[in-house]
């Protein structure tokens, strides 16, 4: 400002921030759903991959949650297309990323190259593997000679270690899969030359990715941005500077009820979050999606953020011993009316969608009865629509956490939405 004083920090209520986040993530209003899966990927900037497949794989569930009953084959084509519209790399985790963002991950490719180690020592045969991909590719690990030595999943063969490290450093790229197996090719064949030729510094990468992550999240704390991009050490310092000097293109905001300060402790004044300025220009309006969410969906993948934004505690229990699980193997939070109303642990039995366990969030206050009734109807809608999407023509609920809601949920399920069954 001309007088040298800092610009005033915009105040947002927790509800205002939540609605901005929902619109940015594609769950509020029709505009964010236009353009199909390809446009959705550009808006989200990263779609996490995971090997678990219950109703469908997580990257398919992410598209379904926002777009409804989009064909699963269409989802796959949008992610793994020829020519490449996306590539796989490390962001929040292993993710599908828009191909236009290839240059922005140069900082991470350089970091891997300098370490020459990730989960395994890089074998001396790496140059031979690269030459094989260059001369014979595109190839899967099976084509290259095998992924494992025959032991546990982490007992990778030298070929697998080499080709994965080549992916880490950007010599090879995965832009499509066959039967969930990565198909590797050399970067110069699949990454557009205009992108391949861009050489960004680490600072330029982090600054631009901070903007990308901020737009995808809508409103985010520093910790949210660090988690989205999985930044460490010097790269977090670059993020801090980009937020402070404005080069990240995000504006400081103060969200009521959110902890503030760089270390997460509340402060008396000043920003406790950062926002995409375009997302603040108009109030979020429109129809909310009612849908179950993959636990790896970017709306909920950060557990601390999920608790802060939605007051919802969620933990993935797939790797917890069965007898110690509280909510189930692949528990999916259920979104309705812009809130997380409960959760479902899904399965399939032939053409029947099975809800092995359904939980509802506790509700208090004078309108608790009406809210609980609305949650039951929304849960039934979410279960039926998801069932229809995966080709099921019946829904069976095995257990409801709130026993007094079991009969109302069964009654709501019998009133199947028109056109879904």
UniProtKB/TrEMBL annotation:
<dbReference type="Pfam" id="PF06224">
    <property type="entry name" value="AlkZ-like"/>
</dbReference>
<dbReference type="InterPro" id="IPR009351">
    <property type="entry name" value="AlkZ-like"/>
</dbReference>
<protein>
    <submittedName>
        <fullName>Crosslink repair DNA glycosylase YcaQ family protein</fullName>
    </submittedName>
</protein>
């Amino acid at each position: 400002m001309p007088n040298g004083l800092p610009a005033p920090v915009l105040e947002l209520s927790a509800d205002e921030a939540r609605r901005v986040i929902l619109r940015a993530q594609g769950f509020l209003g029709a505009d964010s759903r236009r353009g199909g899966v390809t446009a959705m990927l550009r808006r989200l900037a990263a779609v996490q991959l995971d090997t678990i497949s219950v109703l469908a794989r997580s990257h398919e569930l992410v598209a379904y949650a926002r777009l409804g009953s989009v064909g699963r084959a269409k989802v796959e084509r949008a992610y793994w297309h020829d020519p490449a519209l996306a590539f796989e790399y490390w962001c929040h985790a292993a993710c599908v990323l828009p191909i236009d963002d290839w240059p922005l991950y140069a900082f991470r490719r350089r970091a891997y190259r300098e370490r020459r180690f990730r989960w395994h020592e890089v074998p001396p045969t790496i140059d031979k593997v690269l030459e094989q991909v260059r001369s014979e590719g595109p190839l899967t690990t099976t084509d290259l000679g095998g992924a494992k030595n025959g032991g546990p999943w982490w007992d990778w063969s030298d070929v697998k270690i080499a080709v994965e490290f080549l992916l880490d450093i950007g010599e090879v790229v995965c832009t499509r899969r066959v039967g969930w197996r990565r198909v590797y090719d050399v970067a110069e064949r699949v990454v557009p030359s205009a992108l391949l030729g861009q050489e960004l510094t680490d600072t330029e990468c982090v600054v631009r990715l901070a903007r990308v992550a901020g737009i995808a999240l809508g409103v985010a704390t520093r910790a949210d941005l660090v988690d989205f991009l999985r930044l460490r050490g010097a790269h977090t310092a670059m993020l801090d500077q980009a937020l402070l000097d404005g080069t990240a293109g995000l504006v400081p905001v103060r969200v009521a009820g959110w902890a503030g300060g760089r270390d997460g402790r509340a402060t008396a004044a000043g920003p406790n979050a950062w926002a995409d300025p375009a997302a603040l220009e108009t109030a979020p309006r429109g129809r909310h999606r009612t849908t179950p969410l993959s636990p790896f969906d970017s709306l909920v993948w950060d557990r601390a953020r999920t608790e802060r934004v939605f007051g919802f505690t969620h933990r993935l229990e797939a790797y917890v011993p069965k007898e110690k699980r509280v909510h189930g193997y692949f528990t999916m939070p259920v979104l309705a009316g812009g809130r997380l109303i409960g959760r479902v642990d899904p399965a399939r039995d032939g053409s029947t969608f099975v809800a092995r366990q359904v939980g509802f969030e506790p509700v208090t206050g004078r309108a608790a009865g009406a809210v609980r009734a609305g949650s039951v109807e929304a849960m039934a809608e979410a279960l039926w629509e998801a069932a229809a999407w995966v080709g099921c023509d019946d829904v069976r609920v095995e257990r409801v956490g709130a026993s007094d809601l079991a009969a109302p949920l069964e009654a709501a399920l019998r009133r199947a939405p028109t056109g879904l069954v």
